[in-house]
Amino acid sequence: MIDLRSDTFTLPSKEMMESIMNAKLGDDVWEEDPTVIELEALIAKKLGKEAGLLVTSGTQGNLVSHMTHLARGDGVVLEKESHINLYEVGGVSQVSGAYPMIVNGENGLMDPKDIESIFTTPYNVHKVIPRLLCLENTHNRGGGRIIPKDNIDTLSKIANENGGSVHLDGARLFNAAVATGISAAKLAEKVDSVQICLSKGLGCPIGSLIVGTEDFIFKSRRNRKIVGGGMRQAGIIAAPGIYALTNMIDRLAEDHNHAKMLGKALEEIQNFNVKPYDTNIVIVDTTESKLSAGDVADKLEKKGILVTFMEDQLFRMVTYFGITKEDVESVISSIFEVLK
Fold first, then answer.
1. Among 217, 247, 277, where does a domain finish?
2. Which of 32, 94, 123, 163 has the smallest number of Cβ neighbours within 10 A?
3. Rounded CA gap, 229 and 30, in Å?
4. Residue 2 within a domain
5. Distance CA 334, CA 320 (A)
C-alpha cells in the first residue's frame, strides 16, 4: 500500500531511533532534561527567537500560544481555511475563550486590506477587539502554498502597529524555507511566535515546538502545564527532534520534487483541476469531471493507493520521507490506468 494521505505517516529512520536509545534524560517539568534543553535552544537559534518550548503536537503548540497571547473575550483573526480554524476542535474558543474573526483568503493568502480593516476599526463598546493575527505557512488547504515573506511582513506590521500580536502556524515552515531558499528565521522574523511540527516531513514520531521571547516561553510553559503538556523524561521525544533539525531539513526538496511529478501527471487528466503545488501537497478539484473525490479515493485504494478525501470534490496527495520516486511512478501509472 502506498499511503499519500498525509506526511504525518512518516516513520523514524534507524538513525533517529538510535538517537532515542542514546538520549540523556531528566525530568522536563523540573526543566532538567538535558536533551530537551538542547532541542529548545536549537530551534530558537534556527528560527532567530529568544527561546523555545517542546510540546506534544502542533495543535497543542498553537493552543498554548493562543493562551499566552490572548485573554478571554479577545479577538483572534483567522484565515477561513486555516488549520487552526478548521482542524483544531475550536480550542482557541473552548480553552482560550477568544472570539474567532474570520477572513477569506485566496488559497490561504490574506489581503492586507482585509487585515487593516479589522485592526483599524475604531473602538466600539459593542465590538470585539482584535488582539492576535494567526498565519499559516505553508498553507495546508491552499495546497501546501508558500505564503510569501513580504505578505507575512506586511500583515505582521499592520497587526503590531495596531496593538496586536502575530502567531505563525509553521507546521511545515521548513518546507517553505527549502522551496524558497529563504531561511525559516528570515521568513518568521516579523512574527511574535511560531509553532513548527517535528512529526510531519521531518520524520519524528511525535512532537512540535513553539518559539518566541523568553517571557512568552516562560508563560507558555505554564500554559502547557494547564493543558496536560508537562512531560517527564521527554528526551526520548527531543532526541529525534535534534536529529531531524540537523539532518532532515534539506531532504524536504525530494518530497517537493515528488509532488511536482504527481501534480504534472494529474494536470494531464481531463476535467481535473490541480491547485498550484508549491511544496509537498497536491490538491485536486474534480468538480468538472464525472467523478467525486470519493470515487477517486475508492478507485485508487483498489490499486493499493491511499489519498485523503477532503470534500465531495476535493482530494489530497502528500509526499514525505519514505515515499520514493518509484512509489510516485507507480502511483502515476495507476492514475492513468483508472482515471484517464
1. 247
2. 123
3. 13
4. no
5. 19
